[in-house]
Amino acid sequence: MADKQIIPPKHDLDAKWDACLDLTVRRFVYSSSAGAFADLLFFGSPVTRWTSIAFGAGVGIGSAYTECSRLFDGPPTKLPLHNVSETASQLRRLRSELRMSKKRLGTEAKLVKLQATFDKQMTKQPNFN
Question: Which GO terms describe its cellular component (predicted)?
Fold first, then answer.
């Protein structure tokens, strides 16, 4: 007998491809069947029949693709979830900063208007020097 190298299941691509093809075909058929059944229950025209079957097939292929990408690449990295209270406090802080900046802008606009009025008055009056 020839010595066979035993490939660990983590690196066995043939088994992964077999599992992905099997999963894709099963989900395609089951989702298309579910779309056809939903069409019989809810819809009646041939256009909606094909649309619901195509939608079911797309859902099946999409879910199989997601599962196969996890199988080949491993589980996706988990993104950190934000704490709701932390996010709410940040939102309150940003709102208060916005209010303060609006007040400052209002004050600055008044100052600019006063400066323009002052400059206008100064240009009207003659210089006595």
Answer: MICOS complex
- Are 33 and 54 in contact, with CB atoms under 8 Å apart? no
First vs last Cα of the chain: how many Å apart?
117
| SS3 at position 82 | coil
**5 is written with which tokens?**
């190298």
Q: What is the pLDDT of residues 104-126, one digit of tens each?
A: 777 777 767 766 776 666 566 55
Domain boundaries, given as residue ranges, for the chain: 13-73, 97-129
- Integer Cα distance of 78 and 89 in angstroms: 24
**Whole-angstrom distance, CA of residue 31 vs CA of residue 53:** 8
Residue-level pLDDT at 17 = 87
Q: What's the predicted TM-score (pTM) here?
A: 0.49
- Closest C-alpha to 72, from 25, 17, 22, 24: 17
